[in-house]
Specification:
- The protein has helices at 3-19, 27-34, 38-45, 48-71, 77-94, 96-103, 125-131, 137-153, 159-181, 188-201.
- By secondary structure, it is mainly alpha-helical.
- Helix 4 (48-71) runs parallel beside helix 8, helix 5 runs antiparallel to helix 10 and helix 9 runs antiparallel to helix 10.
- The radius of gyration is 19 Å and the shape is elongated.
Length: 202
């Protein structure tokens, strides 16, 4: 099956989820919306749980791709971390699955696949990856922190500087997550992260 068809099935599942709780999303409707047979859908994802895992995996990857973009959007490292925090809060605001993954709060409207790997019999590489472990909120903090350190430190940065940088990166991520759970007022996440990083640098 073409990756494009897999994407259109995931798009159809995501659209269906926006309209109704996951428990009410039917495989036959997802297949029809994507213009494929139900058998094609089962061949690709194996089961409704397989589809849920693939959808969560895709949204996690999309969030992390946005982190990578935010980390390269500015030349100043503080601005890069601020952009990453802004992306985190906006992605969580606009995408219920991203919010659930980052906070660990899965509402009953959403699928809530086990974060541990499930036995995979799929011949589809993308599905085998989706059947692997899914990131927990703590995993996301580490993933984003480590990506930020890699981009901001550059080659040849002394170990002692990297430790400070890792703390700043983790602080920015955790502040962003706190803004997801309890949205801030005026100035929002941008001001919070900027002032926290300034204090840390000072």
């Amino acid at each position: 099956m073409m990756p494009a068809a897999r994407e259109s099935l995931l798009d159809a599942a995501y659209t269906a989820l926006a309209r109704r709780p996951w428990s009410a999303v039917r495989m036959v409707d997802v297949a029809a919306a994507a213009g494929v047979s139900r058998q094609t859908l089962y061949n690709e994802f194996g089961s409704k749980d397989g589809l849920a895992r693939a959808l969560v995996r895709r949204e996690a990857d999309g969030y992390l791709a946005g982190v990578d973009r935010a980390l390269t959007a500015h030349s100043d490292s503080r601005e890069r971390l601020t952009a990453t925090a802004e992306w985190t809060t906006s992605a969580a605001r606009e995408n219920a699955l991203v919010r659930a993954m980052l906070t660990g709060c899965w509402s009953e409207r959403l699928p809530s696949p086990a974060l541990s790997a499930v036995p995979s019999t799929s011949a589809v590489p993308a599905q085998r990856r989706a059947d692997g472990p899914l990131p927990s909120p703590g995993d996301f903090v580490s993933l984003v922190r480590d990506r930020a350190v890699t981009v901001l430190a550059g080659p040849g940065t002394p170990k002692s500087d990297t430790a400070d940088l890792a703390r700043s990166c983790e602080l920015a991520v955790r502040l962003a997550l706190s803004c997801v759970a309890a949205p801030p007022g005026e100035g929002g996440v941008t001001e919070l992260v900027r002032s926290a990083l300034q204090r840390q640098a000072g």
